[in-house]
Amino acid sequence: MPQETLTVMLLGPKIMVGKLLPGWWLCTSIDNAFGLGAVTRVDYGAWASSIGLVALFGVAFICLGLALGRIRRTRPSPSSPSATQSAG
Q1: What is the 8-class DSSP label of residue 40?
Q2: Three-point CA angle 17, 18, 19, nearest 5°
Q3: In angstroms, how far is CA 48 from the centroid of its own chain?
Q4: Is the pTM value of this prediction over 0.70?
Q5: With left for phi above 0 and alpha for psi between -120 and 50, is residue 81 left, alpha or beta?
Q6: Could you read off the pLDDT of 33-86 as tens digits, one per residue?
Q7: DSSP 8-state class, residue 83
Q8: Are 45 and 10 in contact, with CB atoms under 8 Å apart?
Q9: Cα separation of 10 and 7, whole Å?
């Protein structure tokens, strides 16, 4: 199998996984704001939608952190020190 074919075959799944991460959308918003890369002109609508997705990732990460913190606080493991419990 030629190297070019293998590269193209591996690129598809990497791009698909990359679109699930906030870094992809941040880079896309920068490209849209400045007209860089594959974008030939400044596209404010695409920039706003990409920034909106990055903001949604931020909200999702904050909610996930708050939920996991609450679970950890309400259900301490037997090996956790007693110093993590509330003093009040």
Answers
A1: -
A2: 90
A3: 16
A4: no
A5: beta
A6: 887 776 677 888 888 888 999 999 999 999 999 999 998 888 866 665 555 556
A7: G
A8: no
A9: 5
